[in-house]
Amino acid sequence: MNQSELDRLQSWFDSYVQTFYDTDDDGLRNIRLKVEHTGQVCRVMELLAAGEGLSPDDARIAAAAALLHDVGRFPQYRRWRTFRDSDSDNHARLSVEVLREQRLLERLEVGERLLIEEAVRFHNLLELPARLKSPTALFLKLLRDADKLDIWRVFLDYFQKPPEERASAASLGFPDRPEISPECVATLAAGRVIRLDTVKTLNDFKLLQISWVYDLNFPSSCRLLAERGHIQRLAATIQPGEALAPLLEKVMAEVKGRAAGQLPEGI
Length: 267
Description:
CATH class of the largest domain: Mainly Alpha
Shape: globular
Order of helices and strands: HHHHHHHHHHHH
Number of domains: 2
CATH architecture of the largest domain: Orthogonal Bundle
């Protein structure tokens, strides 16, 4: 993939999202949220590509996947006024649908097109598909990490804004109560990613986001997470959170170890 093709995709994206700006104020906040998210994921991807030593060609493929990974969010919001897949449709599938309807990747070599489509298609799964082959696995893992690294920023910004300034669709509607579900605590303590269907409160949802640490795939991702302090800042929003302190120390030790290259077998 050459730079001119990547530039073409960027120009298409900029034009495409403009077609969704004709909406009310609340809708505009939600559309802009996803436009900004896409831009930030692209920036994170640049850092990961450099940190992991990708070749220029591979770095451009990774950049294209980052740029296109959420294009299905825009028709999703227009049709259903939500970003919650369970109340609408799988946004990753919708993204691939947009790529094909727009015939966006037809100029690329077949192998490059498939790498981008597969990364987009699977980026939001709870777990990676079994028997995932290289190089598909490389680009999918990079995209999943870049996506998470910006989603942490998105929600930290959301929690800090007054309600009237928040993008309404960013909230998944969990009640903001002080309870924390024992099942979520146990899953985090076991070093596993918390499932969304076990989340009952906003505190649970914050623990779910913290548990994403156990799904990061590259030392560069963990170094960037440590530098940005997302986990500490997210943990500070959990009230009351004193009982979670030992568990959060374990999570931060995991981040430190992974940043040093101590990744679990199979990653």
